[in-house]
Specification:
- This protein is an alpha/beta fold.
- The protein has 11 helices and 8 strands.
- Helices cover 56% and strands 13% of the residues.
- Strand 2, helix 2 and strand 3 form a beta-alpha-beta unit.
C-alpha cells in the first residue's frame, strides 16, 4: 500500500507514526501534503516519509488518500483533487468529523463508483490508545474496510460500525475522554479536600483510572463483576458505590451520553 495524507495536524502525525512503528507500511510508502509545505517537510524529515508540494502530486503517487483536514475545508480539498481521484479510482479515507459518506461522495460530483471510507478516531489515538469507528460506502469492498481497520488498529482499537451508529460512538468514545478527565479531576479535588497536594492527587487518580481500564480490558468479568470484587461486605468501597448511586451517578452518565448524541445530531 502507498498511502497519502492531506493535512499534517496532530491526528495525521499520530496515524503516520503508528502505522510506521507497527510496520503496517514502510516510511518510503507514505506521502504527506499540507497547505504550508514547510510544516509537511518538517514532519516528513522527522519520520522519514515523503513531503510533496502539490496536492495532486500526492494523489498521483498513492492508492489510498487520507483526508486529514478540518471539516470546513474538506469540500474545497475534494474539489481540488477530484479529477485525479476519479482518474486513478483511489480509495478515499476521511477522518473529518461530521461529514457523512453521502456528503463526501456528493463533493466528487460524479456517478462513478468511488470507494470512500469514513473513519472516526478519538484523541487517545495520539498516544497509541485510540478508539476508532470505520464505515465504508456502497462501493467499498470488505477487503478495503478490513485494511483500514487494520491501519487504525496500529494506534489503538478499531471497529466497523454502521454509519447510523456513529453518533453513539462519538459520544461514548469521542467525547468520553472529556468525561473521564472530569472524573479524574474530581477524584483529585477530593484528594486535595482531604489533605493531598493537587499534582500528587491527580497522578494517583490518573494511575488508578489507567489501571482500572487495563484490568477490565484483560478480565473475563464484566464491569459489575469487578466492582463486586473490590467491594467487601460493609466496607469502604461499597459505601462509596452506594453514595454514587444515591446521587444518580449511572443515570447522570447515561444522560450525558444522550445529550451528547442529541447535540451531535443537531449539528
Amino acid at each position: 500500500m502507498k498511502i497519502g495524507f492531506i493535512g499534517a495536524g496532530n491526528m495525521a502525525r499520530a496515524i503516520i507514526e503508528g502505522i510506521i512503528s507497527q510496520k503496517f507500511v514502510s516510511a518510503e510508502d507514505v506521502y504527506l501534503y499540507n497547505i504550508h509545505f514547510e510544516k509537511a517537510q518538517n514532519l516528513a524529515d522527522q519520520l522519514g516519509i515523503h513531503a510533496v508540494e502539490e496536492v495532486n502530486q500526492l494523489v498521483e503517487a498513492v492508492d489510498t488518500v487520507v483526508l486529514a483536514v478540518k471539516p470546513p475545508i474538506i469540500e474545497s480539498v475534494v474539489n481540488e483533487i477530484r479529477t485525479t481521484i476519479l482518474a486513478k479510482n483511489s480509495l478515499i479515507v476521511s477522518i473529518a468529523a461530521g461529514k457523512d459518506l453521502a456528503t463526501l461522495y456528493d463533493y466528487l460530483e460524479t456517478e462513478q463508483a468511488v470507494s470512500i471510507i469514513r473513519v472516526m478516531p478519538n484523541m487517545n489515538s495520539m498516544v497509541g490508545q485510540g478508539a476508532t469507528a470505520v464505515c465504508g460506502n456502497q462501493f467499498t469492498s470488505k477487503e478495503q474496510v478490513a485494511e483500514i481497520i487494520a491501519l487504525f488498529a496500529a494506534i489503538g482499537k478499531a471497529w466497523e460500525l454502521p454509519e447510523e451508529q456513529f453518533s453513539t460512538f462519538a459520544a461514548i468514545a469521542g467525547s468520553s475522554p472529556a468525561f473521564t478527565f472530569l472524573y479524574i479531576d474530581s477524584l483529585a479535588r477530593a484528594g486535595v479536600k482531604n489533605g493531598l497536594p493537587k499534582d500528587l492527587a491527580t497522578e494517583m487518580a490518573t494511575q488508578a483510572v489507567l489501571g482500572s481500564a487495563e484490568t477490565l480490558a484483560a478480565s473475563s468479568e464484566n464491569a459489575w463483576g469487578l466492582i463486586d470484587q473490590v467491594s467487601s461486605p460493609g466496607g469502604t468501597t461499597v459505601a462509596g458505590v452506594v453514595s454514587l448511586e444515591d446521587n444518580r451517578f449511572l443515570a447522570t452518565v447515561v444522560k450525558a451520553v444522550d445529550d451528547t448524541i442529541a447535540r451531535e445530531k443537531e449539528l
